[in-house]
Amino acid sequence: MKKINIVLFGTGNVGSTVINQVLAAREKLQQEENLELNIPVIANSTTAFFVKQTVNRSWETNFSASGFPYKISDVIDYVTQQGYENLVAIDATASESFVDHYKLLIEQGFHVVAANKVANTLSSEFYEDLRKSLRKNGKFFYYETNVGAGLPIIQTLHGLYQAGEEITRVRGVFSGSLSYIFNTFSEESKSFSEVLTEAEKKGLTEPDPRVDLSGKDVGRKLLILARELKLKKELSEINIQDLVPKHLNGKSSLKNFQLKKHELDGDLEKLKADLEEDEVIRHVGELEIATGNLEVKLVKEKRTSAFGSLKNADSSFEIYTESYGEQPLVIQGAGAGAAVTARGVVADILRLSERLN
Ligand SMILES: NC(=O)c1ccc[n+]([C@@H]2O[C@H](COP(=O)([O-])OP(=O)(O)OC[C@H]3O[C@@H](n4cnc5c(N)ncnc54)[C@H](OP(=O)(O)O)[C@@H]3O)[C@@H](O)[C@H]2O)c1
């Protein structure tokens, strides 16, 4: 039986769902795939919980009762003492700094699966350095959920590129929250700020919705796809349309933004008034390979197009290539949420495990 030993960092929405999904799939994987997935260590930013083989369904109670403060070296020492094979570190944190541990983890025998986008969106230097370290240590790094959550965007793009397909253009409605906001705003006779408030109440936006409206997160995802196609790009090179006016961003408080968000309505109402009968507004990220241009912006789309017919908070991606011709390859569906993201993480673990002895 092949054994995979998972150390899970981040027990929030995604991380806790990963644990539950792994535990639920364990028996079937043992019987059908001859594969044993164990989770001997789980950790959040301050506390770690260690067991001999794997956590069980009471992990939350046990974590609270028996977890203790830790350093990353404690985790490494523990897995070394136990002699675990096939180690996989899962980064289900939302941390800017956790990626500082990646190199050490890789050198100490871990493969990495990340839902966290940070490692792929820092400088090109960091990006290349990480890959050098992976090659040198014979380790793998999977991060399908960085773009489109559980949707198979990165593997599809990567596979096409590897197979020698000429990819000319990639477009996407990358953000679930902005998808919902513009799908609703285009259809209903409500002001933009009303729709935004509705999205906040449904928990679709970040606690500070300016994070979504700034377009930076979409920019990060676009950068990840560009780098997948070997374009040497930095986040600062992406043209991002920030939907938040300068005076409500930066030093201005969230409270001030909430009081004045109706000031966003004018420009967006005008854009809506300029639409033809068969058009809607969509928030997209676009990558033109020939020019290397990366843009995040609002566009008018035909209602009948893949983006134009989007519903709720769904994401959609169009990949234009030589073989697919005028009609792009389209991948569409829920592009956010703990369940689909965790499933994408588990799928990454399984794809990784196929490459291990
Ligand atoms: N939710 C989605 O739809 C979605 C989709 C795709 C990708 N993602 C990505 O998945 C990641 C997790 O998202 P989430 O929604 O689960 O976030 P979350 O609920 O905020 O959970 C984050 C977890 O990370 C832990 N953490 C923070 N810093 C850490 C550190 N230095 N070491 C170990 N653990 C640390 C936190 O622990 P404390 O409680 O101790 O701070 C918490 O348990 C994020 O990077 C997000 O961008 C999410």
TrEMBL record:
The keyword Oxidoreductase applies. Keywords: Amino-acid biosynthesis, Methionine biosynthesis, NADP, Oxidoreductase, Threonine biosynthesis. L-homoserine binds at residue 206. InterPro entries: Asp/hSer_DH_NAD-bd, Bifunc_Aspkin/hSer_DH, HDH_cat, HDH_CS, HDH_short, NAD(P)-bd_dom_sf. One of its GO terms (molecular function) is NADP binding. Signal peptide: none annotated. Residues 10-144 form the Aspartate/homoserine dehydrogenase NAD-binding domain. It holds the Pfam family Homoserine_dh. The active site is at residue 221. It comes from the Bacteria. Pathway: Amino-acid biosynthesis; L-methionine biosynthesis via de novo pathway; L-homoserine from L-aspartate: step 3/3; Amino-acid biosynthesis; L-threonine biosynthesis; L-threonine from L-aspartate: step 3/5. It is an enzyme of class 1 (oxidoreductase). NADPH binds at residues 93, 117. GO terms for biological process: homoserine biosynthetic process; lysine biosynthetic process via diaminopimelate; methionine biosynthetic process; threonine biosynthetic process. The keyword Cell cycle does not apply. Its cofactor is a metal cation. This is Homoserine dehydrogenase. The lineage of its organism: Bacteria, Pseudomonadati, Bacteroidota, Flavobacteriia, Flavobacteriales.
